[in-house]
Specification:
Helix 2 packs across helix 4 and helix 2 packs across helix 10. The chain has two domains: 259 residues, Rossmann fold; 55 residues, no CATH class. By secondary structure, the chain is an alpha/beta fold. Strand 10 and strand 11 form a beta hairpin. Strands 1, 2, 3, 4, 5, 6, 7 and 8 form an eight-stranded mixed β-sheet that branches. Strands 9, 10, 11, 12 and 13 form a five-stranded antiparallel β-sheet that branches. It contains eleven helices and 13 strands. 36% of the residues lie in helices and 24% in strands.
C-alpha cells in the first residue's frame, strides 16, 4: 500500500490561490518573513497570525509542509490498520485545516469534521477554504483553547488529530491535555510535531502517558516498550514536497521543493499489526551495500546489507526512511 501524495489537493490549492488574487507578492513575502521570525522566537500562533494577510502568508508558506507531514503520518496509520475507517474526526489546533484535509485524502468516508482552534481568524478561513474546495463533509467550528479543561463537550471521535499544536503547550500542561485528548478518542489519536530533538523528547513523554492510559501504539514504533534510541539521537522522519509558484514567490525560494522534518505518533483503542522493525533514518547506500538504522523488537540497531547478498539487497534497496520491514528483524 503506497503512501498518499504529499501535495495539497488540487481543489484546496486552487482555493488558496484564488484568495491571493489582487494581493501583492511583496506584501505577502514580508508577512511570511515576519511569521518565520515569530515562530523561531517560539511565539504562540494566536499572537503570530493577526489578520487575513498573515493567515494567507501562512497558507502559502507553511500549510503545504504541514499537510505533507500529516498526510504521510495518516498514510502510515492506514498501512498498519487497513480496517480502520473513521467517519467523524476532531482536528485539534486546526490552523487552516491541514489535518482535516489530509484525513479526507486518506479516508474519503469521513463525513463530519470538527475544527477546534483558539483563533477565530483561522477557523473562519479554514471553513471557507474547505467549502470553496468542494469538501463534502459537514464542518463544525469550535472556538476554544484545547488546553482548557472544558474546550469541547464530552464526546468521542473516531479520529483525533493534533497537528503541530502540542509544541506550543507548556510542559506542565501536557499530562492533563493528553488525558483529555485520549478521552475524546474513540478510535485513533494521531499527533504530529516538528522533527526536532525537543519535540521528540516531549513526544516520548506523551507516548509514556498514553501507554499508561491503555493506548496501543500503532505507528511508528513496532513495540510498546520505552524508546530504545540513544540519548544523543531522536526519532523523526522527512517528506519531500514540490513548491508551487506562489510558494516560491512568497518565500523567496529558488529550490523547486522542500523537505519537511517531522515526528509523529499514532495510538488506538484497537491494536495494529506491528512490523518486525522500522527504518528510522535515511538509508545510506554505498558501493558495497546499504546501511540502515532500525527500531526493532524493543531495541535500536544499525545493520548493513551487502550487495553480494542479492535476495536481501534487492528487497531492501527500494525501502525508504520510515518504511516498515515485515520480515523478522534478525534477518536484517
Amino acid at each position: 500500500m503506497s503512501l498518499p501524495s504529499p501535495e495539497l489537493p488540487a481543489p484546496l490549492a486552487a482555493a488558496i490561490e484564488a484568495r491571493l488574487d489582487g494581493r501583492g507578492h511583496n506584501a505577502l513575502r514580508e508577512r511570511a518573513r515576519l511569521l518565520s521570525e515569530r515562530y523561531r522566537a517560539r511565539k504562540p500562533t494566536i499572537d503570530t497570525i493577526r489578520d487575513e494577510t498573515d493567515a494567507l502568508a501562512y497558507a502559502v508558506t507553511r500549510m503545504p509542509a504541514t499537510y505533507a507531514a500529516i498526510v504521510t503520518a495518516l498514510g502510515r496509520l492506514e498501512q498498519e490498520s487497513p480496517g480502520f475507517a473513521p467517519t467523524r474526526m476532531l482536528d485539534v489546533g486546526c490552523g487552516l485545516g491541514a489535518a482535516s484535509c489530509a484525513a479526507a485524502t486518506v479516508w474519503p468516508g469521513i463525513a463530519e469534521r470538527a475544527l477546534l482552534d483558539r483563533s477565530a481568524l483561522f477557523l473562519d478561513l479554514a471553513a471557507s477554504l474547505m467549502k470553496e474546495s468542494g469538501a463534502p463533509a459537514a464542518i463544525e467550528t469550535i472556538l476554544a483553547d484545547f488546553a482548557e479543561p472544558r474546550a469541547i463537550a464530552a464526546e468521542q471521535f473516531d479520529l483525533v488529530v493534533v497537528g503541530y499544536a502540542l509544541t506550543e503547550t507548556a510542559e506542565s500542561e501536557l499530562p492533563s491535555v493528553i488525558d483529555r485528548l485520549w478521552a475524546h478518542t474513540g478510535g485513533a489519536l494521531v499527533i504530529v510535531e516538528p522533527g526536532t530533538p525537543r519535540d521528540h523528547a516531549r513526544l516520548m513523554s506523551v507516548r509514556s502517558r498514553l501507554v499508561a492510559l491503555g493506548a496501543n501504539i500503532i505507528v511508528p514504533c513496532p513495540h510498546q516498550a520505552p524508546c530504545p534510541l540513544p540519548a544523543n539521537d531522536w526519532c523523526h522522519f522527512s517528506v519531500r514536497l514540490a513548491r508551487r509558484r506562489a510558494h516560491r514567490l512568497v518565500k523567496g525560494a529558488d529550490a523547486p521543493f522542500e523537505d519537511e522534518k517531522f515526528a509523529y505518533l499514532a495510538v488506538g483503542r484497537f491494536a495494529g499489526t506491528p512490523p518486525a522493525s522500522r527504518i528510522i533514518g535515511p538509508p545510506r547506500a554505498g558501493k558495497a551495500g546499504i546501511s540502515l538504522k532500525l527500531c526493532a523488537d524493543k531495541a535500536f540497531r544499525e545493520t548493513f546489507i551487502p550487495k553480494r547478498d542479492k535476495p536481501r539487497y534487492e528487497q531492501i534497496r527500494r525501502k525508504d526512511w520510515g518504511d516498515p520491514l515485515r520480515a523478522p528483524a534478525e534477518e536484517f
